[in-house]
Amino acid sequence: MQRLISLRAAVLLAIVVGLVAYLAGAHTGSVVRPSVATAQAPIKWKVQSAWPPTSIVQDAAKLLVDTINKTSGGRLQMELSPAGAIVPPFEIQDAVNRGVLDAGHTTPGYIIGKLKAFIPLTHGPLFGMDFIDYYGWYWEGGGHELLQEAYQDKLKMNVVSFQVHPEGPQAMGWFKKEIRSFKDIKGSRYRIYAAGAEVYNKLGIASVVLAGGEIVPALERGAIDGAEWINCYDDKILGLDKVAKFHYAPGMHEPTTVGEFIINKGKWDALPADLKEVVKTSVQASYWNHFVRFHEKTAKACQELLAAGIKIIKTTDELNKGFLKAYDEIWQADAAKDEFYRKVIDSQKKYSSLIVPYRMSYWPKYDFIGEHYYKEKIWLSDKPAARPAAAPVAAPAAAKPAEKKAPEKK
Predict the structure, then answer these.
(1) Cβ 235 vs Cβ 157: under 8 Å
(2) Tens of pLDDT along 172-207?
C-alpha cells in the first residue's frame, strides 16, 4: 500500500511541476506556439477577366477560380474581378507580366499585334480540329509548350499560360440587312477580331476590334454595320438582337476558339508542386465543364430568339468557302515569313492529319443519328430570310357585254 501511495504522489508531483513550468513560460513569452508559416496562411491571387460581368465567358472565369479555390482546400484563393475593374480588357497580359495582376482570364487573340502566331495557337479553322481535337493537340501534341515558348521566348514576358475556356463554335454575326455573299457586306464596317479580322480585311470589309461592352453602342451609333460576339446566349445578354435582326451561323472565323488563364511567372514558380498540379487539373476540368454548360445555355437562348422573331439564318456555303480560301492564303503567307508561326502550323497539321481523317472515317456522322431522331426539329434554315409578300395582282376581268360588265376588282 505504501508503494501505491508513493506512485500516486509522484504522478501528482509531475503534474504540478509541469503546470508551474507552463505558467512560467507563458509569463515570459517562451511557450512554443504554431507560427504563421506552420499554419500555412492561404495564398491569395488578384485575378481580372476581359469579360463583362454578365457574359457567359465570365461564367467560365468564375467556374475556374471556384474550382481552384475548392480543389486547393482554400490554400490557393482567387479574387476575381470583371473587365475594366483594374485594367482595360486588352491590357491584361501586360498587367500580369508587370505584376499588377497575379493572373488573368482573357485570350491571346487580343494581342496578335505582338505575335501573329497567337491566331493558330488559339482559334480558327485549325485544319478541321474541333474542341476535342484541339484539347488533344494542346495537351498531347505540344500545344501547351508552344504557348509558353510564344510568351516566354518570343515575347520575353514573365508569364505562364493555360488554354482553359472553349467559346464556340461561334456565329458569323449580326446584320441589319440580309446577306447572301461577300458582295452584300463589302465596304461595310464589321466588328470581329484576330483571324476573322484578317480575312475580312482581305475581302474588302473593314474590320473593327471592340471589347464586348462597346459593340451595341457602336451599332446604335452607326459606327459599325455588323458584329460578331459569341453566340445566341451571350449576344442576347449583350443586346445585339435589339439593334440587328438578322443573325447568321455558323462562322468560319472561330469554329474552334479557346481562351487562356495567364499567370505571373513569379507567382507560379512560388507555388508548391501540389498546388501547381491543382491549377493544371482545375484548368482541364473547367475546360469540359464550361463546354457543356455553354452549349446548353446557347441551345435555349437560340429558341428564345426564334420565338421573339429574330431570323437565324444558315450562312451560305459561298460565304464559308470564301472565308476558308482567304484564310488559307493568309496563313500560308505568314508561315513563309515567320519561323515560329510555321512551327505552330506544322505542329497542328501533324496532329490534325492523323486525328481528323480518322474521325471522319471511323466515327459516325453526327447528322446520321441526329436526323434519325430529330430531323423535324432542325430549325436553322439555309434559305434566304422571308421577305414581305407582295400584294396580289388582280387578273384581268374577262370580256363581257357592256351592259353586263362587272365592277373592277381591287
Answers:
(1) no
(2) 999 999 988 888 999 999 999 999 999 999 999 999
What is the average pLDDT value for the chain, to the nearest integer? Answer: 87
Domain ranges of the chain: 38-168+253-311+335-366
pLDDT digits (tens, 9 = 90+) for 302-349: 999 999 999 999 999 999 999 999 999 999 999 999 999 999 999 999
By the 8 A CB rule, do 324 and 127 touch? Answer: no
What is the DSSP pairing of strand 226-227 with strand 206-208?
unpaired
pLDDT over 60 (residue 218): yes
Q: In the 3-class helix/strand/coil scheme, how is the chain assigned residue by residue?
A: CHHHHHHHHHHHHHHHHHHHHHHHHHHHCCCCCCCHHHHCCCEEEEEEECCCCCCHHHHHHHHHHHHHHHHCCCCEEEEEECCCCCCCHHHHHHHHHHCCCCEEEECHHHHCCCCCCHHHHHEECHHHCCHHHHHHHHHHCCHHHHHHHHHHHHCCCCEEEEEEEECCCCCCEEECCCCCCHHHCCCCEEECCCHHHHHHHHCCCEEECCCHHHHHHHHHHCCCCEECCCCHHHHHHHCHHHCCCEEEECCCCCCEEEEEEEEEHHHHHHCCHHHHHHHHHHHHHHHHHHHHHHHHHHHHHHHHHHHCCCEEEECCHHHHHHHHHHHHHHHHHHHHHCHHHHHHHHHHHHHHHHHHHHHHHHCCCHHHHHHHHHHHHCCCECCCCCCCCCCCCCCCCCCCCHHHCCCCCC
* Residue pointed to by grid coordinates 505552330: 344
Q: Which three cell numbers stand for residue 229?
A: 460576339
**Model pTM score:** 0.84
CATH architecture of 38-168+253-311+335-366: 3-Layer(aba) Sandwich (3.40)
Asked if the peptide bond before residue 250 counts as cis, ω within 30 degrees of 0, the response is yes
Candidate ranges 2-11, 176-185, 347-356; pick with highest mean pLDDT: 347-356
According to the model, what pLDDT value does residue 384 have? 52
Angle between helices 317-337 and 339-362 (to 10 degrees): 140
